[in-house]
Design brief:
9 strands; 10 helices; four-stranded parallel β-sheet; globular
Length: 216
């Protein structure tokens, strides 16, 4: 999982994508890359997800493409076969985590309670998705969880936006954030890839500014 963690730490932001037409997948990948963010989580919330992951994996092999909303072993198998390089889930299903580990596929299950975190640690995980971040108290809750679990790295997702991205990234245990405001379903359906590239550039600038503050 170290390679994916390193890539997440470099990007600091993972676009969470709900795509309805796999024909738009490669153009979407190109728009994200043009904006400076060659990474995406394609969620299994539409029938197009598997084909979209497969299309991007084949056409843009250097892009860090993963599958999201992977809550069953069946979906994990589909994601693996399609070429996903990592898995993300809204919750923590040990069977899915174990399948991912058996296939050397990095996985970020969703957690929001101490019990969730302890289950993740018992499975040998070193990074998890904090979800739904804003609904579960946002950064204040994440800081509280990080007290007893200071060995864990986090990818907050759910309610992350341009307005609060820098706040989350200012907290050192945060590996990256997941967000969808630069890749809304409407922008993708309208094939407004120029807008996606522009919003992605703006997001990358927020990341750059936040990094300058921590490193300064």
């Amino acid at each position: 999982m170290t390679g994916v963690i390193d890539r997440f730490a470099q990007c600091c932001l993972v676009p969470v994508v709900k795509i309805n037409d796999a024909e738009d997948a490669v153009a979407l990948a190109d728009a994200l890359t043009e904006g400076g963010l060659p990474v995406a989580e394609i969620t299994f919330r539409t029938d197009a997800a598997t084909a979209a992951i497969s299309a991007i994996s084949a056409a843009r092999p250097d892009m860090l493409i993963g599958a999201g909303t992977v809550s069953t072993v069946e979906n994990a198998k589909r994601a693996l076969d399609a070429g996903a390089k990592f898995l993300v889930a809204p919750g923590l299903n040990p069977a899915v985590v174990e399948f991912a580990q058996a296939n050397n596929l990095p996985m970020l299950p969703g957690v929001c309670t101490p019990t969730d975190v302890e289950t993740a640690l018992s499975l040998g995980l070193e990074a998890v998705k904090f979800f739904p971040a804003e609904a579960y108290g946002g950064l204040a809750t994440l800081k509280a969880l990080s007290g007893p679990y200071n060995m864990m790295r986090w990818v907050p997702t759910g309610g992350i936006s341009a307005a609060n991205l820098a706040d989350y990234l200012s907290f050192a245990p945060v590996l990256a954030c997941g967000g969808s405001w630069m890749v809304t379903s409407k922008l993708i359906a309208d094939q407004n890839f120029a807008a996606i590239a522009s919003l992605t550039r703006d997001a990358v600038e927020i990341v750059r500014t936040a990094r300058t503050k921590w490193e300064g």
